[in-house]
Amino acid sequence: xxxxxxxxxxxxPILFLLFLFPGICEANPEIAVVQSIRVKPYEEAIKGFVxxxxxxxxxxxxxxxxxxxxxxKIKDMGPEMVLAIGSDALSIAKRIKGTPIVYVMVxxxxxxxxxxxxxxxVSMNIPPKQQLTALLRAVPHVKTVxxxxxxxxxxxxxxxxxxxxxxxxxxxxxREIYSPKDAPSLIMDMKxxxxxxxxxxxxxxxxxxxxxxxxxxxxxxxxxxLTFSDKxxxxxxxxxxxxxxxxxxRQAGEIASKILSGTDLKNVQHVGARRLVVSTNLMVAxxxxxxxxxxMDLGTGSxxxxxxxxxxxx
Length: 314
What we know:
The protein is of the alpha/beta class. Helix content is 39%, strand content 21%.
């Protein structure tokens, strides 16, 4: 009898917790994490994801499968959710029906999706207003910005940019491009019209040859180059407005947590990156006659990275 009373006293708090939180003893949901390769930005996104989403993770690295059927491997896992990191992973994962899919580190995801109801995620596209505001804080005298874009790839972004500039006093010279070979002539045609060239993450424009041409064009014509990755800042661009991979992972984790907690997918939205990381090349800034304020206010949710020494195109 004494033993029964002791056991009862010990079990009662546990039973009480189970009554309040019926899922407390359930195993963590299992998520298949699909990525093309192991690179630092992807790994940072995964760290951000697991920091907010309490789930078991199983990795599928496409480059390590050695010809195995990636789709079959994912399906055999029977995950409750798939986290697709990068465009290649999303292209494979979107073929899975009936399982929630969350994507992250994907540029222009809407151009890859066809209205799939089981997919939500975080785009790498940073709103034009954030990028242009950061540019104006660094170079207040800018009046006209030029860019090239393929309407099928970055048309939606450019339309948003065209609406944005109306409210911040900038003129936008946007030229359509359908082949990388046309880039040099289109860029040269803008030379006398623009104060800054804005390099968008559009694969019709971004080729090794075009990037090299743009870096030379910038320095030879004293026209700052605004880009989307600090690797181009290290190569000789003036400024980049990039993403924070860890924070994007956190955003994806927040979306996943909502879905796993039972929120209807209809009430979960696709979102864009919320944190802006501005990188500036001081060597290029000096060459262009731009005085960079290293303490400038970039606005809420933004941070600044100063690249003091960088390789420059001569």
